[in-house]
Design brief:
Largest sheet: 4 strands, mixed
CATH superfamily of the largest domain: DnaJ domain
Number of domains: 3
Order of helices and strands: HHHHHEEHEHEEEEEEHEEEEEEHH
CATH architecture of the largest domain: Orthogonal Bundle
Strand content: 15-25%
CATH topology of the largest domain: Helix Hairpins
């Protein structure tokens, strides 16, 4: 008998959907086969928590499990699937309660009729039993640049199989990709379920995403800020040369049109935020220049702040 999914994930029956997801993700990161190569125990536990989350992570399935309509494996309980749909053609079968059937012999005859001949056709005039396969849920962590530019990757499934996944350009953190027919097999003529891949995007040390725009902070020298010049800037598509205007200030933003995330409606921009950085060591020449410049051209950059405060 399959274990109670609440116990498998380690949450109370009254746990919120958010608490269930947090508990599952914590265990999944710890037990994933890619992080525990050759560890059969971790692999088995990963299979169990994945199966449990397939039920508890879906509000409809969770509700049906709590009401006893499906069991811990996600399968229909006999009294709701087989009797109500098929008992009309079985003489003598009497449904008493959720505990089972009064006439076990009639119950056996019913299933013999349904599956005689090794298939689910049943006797003449009987209905064919079919059920869609379960959806399989996975979480895939991808690098920032792979998410914005798109890529193809392969994930290892709990049963040791693999699944090829195409990451479309511009996928967002938390977005779910649906792979049609890559879930659990259907019963009878039921179609297979789908694979639902939740994408987690790892942060990047340089780039940040704001909608379809990419933001990057670029340091410039004191003389580049005063005189202007050409500087090399990283983008999600490679490095490019950008013109810094004379008199540039920290916080000033340069816009690189179309250098952002490619979306269906076009592409975002890259926003280059400038930051003036003084040299680590201030030598005597720079000190003397600054002192002379202060005497001749002193100004108050905080004047407006004082007036508005």
């Amino acid at each position: 008998m399959a274990e109670d999914p609440y116990s498998v994930i380690g949450v109370a029956k009254a746990a919120s959907a958010e608490d269930i997801t947090k508990a599952y993700r914590k265990l999944a990161k710890k037990l994933h086969p890619d992080l525990n190569p050759g560890d059969k125990s971790a692999e088995e536990r990963f299979k169990k928590i994945t199966a449990a989350y397939d039920i508890l992570g879906d509000p409809d399935k969770r509700g049906r499990y709590d009401r006893g309509e499906i069991d811990a494996t996600g399968q229909e309980t006999p009294q709701q699937r087989y009797y109500r749909e098929y008992a009309g053609g079985a003489e003598g079968a009497r449904y008493r309660s959720s505990a089972g059937y009064e006439d076990i012999g009639a119950f056996s005859d019913l299933f013999g009729d349904l599956f005689e001949g090794g298939g689910p056709r049943g006797r003449a005039g009987g209905r064919r039993f079919s059920m869609r396969g379960q959806d399989a849920q996975y979480r895939l962590e991808v690098e920032f640049l792979d998410a914005v530019n798109g890529t193809k990757t392969r994930i290892t499934l709990p049963d040791g199989g693999t699944l090829d996944v195409t990451i479309p350009p511009g996928v967002n953190d938390g977005q779910v990709l649906r792979l049609k027919g890559k879930g659990g097999p259907g019963l009878g003529e039921g179609e297979p379920g789908d694979a639902l891949i939740e994408i987690g995007v790892r942060p990047h040390p340089v780039f940040k995403r704001e909608g379809d725009d990419i933001v990057v902070e670029v340091p410039i020298t004191f003389d580049e800020a005063v005189l202007g010049g050409k500087v090399e800037v990283p983008t999600i598509g490679g490095r490019v040369s950008v013109t810094v205007p004379a008199g540039a200030n920290t916080g000033q933003t340069l816009r690189l049109k179309g250098r952002g995330v490619k979306a269906r409606g076009g592409a975002g921009d890259q926003l280059v935020k400038l930051a003036v950085v003084l040299p680590e060591r201030i030598d005597q020449d720079l000190k003397s220049f600054a002192e002379k410049w202060r005497q001749d051209h002193g100004y108050d950059p905080r004047r407006k702040l004082k007036e508005q405060a």
